[in-house]
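Weekly structure sync - notes
Attendees: PM, LS, DV (DV joined late)
Agenda: review two folding runs queued last week.

Item 1: First target. Sequence and structure tokens pasted below for the record.
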Amino acid sequence: MRWALALVVVVAAATIGTAVYVVLHNRDPVPNDITACVNKAGLVLAHNSAALNVARADVQAGALRPVRRWDYGRTDGVLLQPPDRSYAILVLSNPDAPSLGGDVGRRVYDQPNAFPLVSVETPVLGALVGCAKR
């Protein structure tokens, strides 16, 4: 009887330990922190291609390019801008989202809702970069 009780205690402790590890290991506060900053700055969060209409011509021409990148650990960020720097788009990606490599401008324009955050700043005043640097 004592062995059974000891086994139950060990299994319960292992289960709790595993649950704590999984929750803490998978916690990624970066998208929430940056989203809060973007909201506080009053910038647009793009959940569909219509919110990215400012970039449509540049995406079709292949002119929307990464100008800055950030690595936050589980989350990566990229700032996209056209050659004239008239607007900026901040995109965050994590292991559950599409890659920020290759033709990222087109990928973001086609599926902004697939990323943890896509935000637009026009005109560019530095708010997106400020939020990304946090």
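Item 2: Second target, run right after the first with the same settings.
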Amino acid sequence: MSDLNRGIMKFEGADSAAALTASAIVILGSIAVLILWALKSAYVF
């Protein structure tokens, strides 16, 4: 069993490249949205 197949990702294929890529895109995208929202709220563009 892979270490990535433990914790909250307890499904088969949790350590596949597609699953890791999708989760990375979701996480990095949400961080980018929060940064842009914070900048838009703090400064008038």
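Discussion on item 2: The first helix runs from residue 17 to 42.
Action: LS to circulate a short write-up before next sync.
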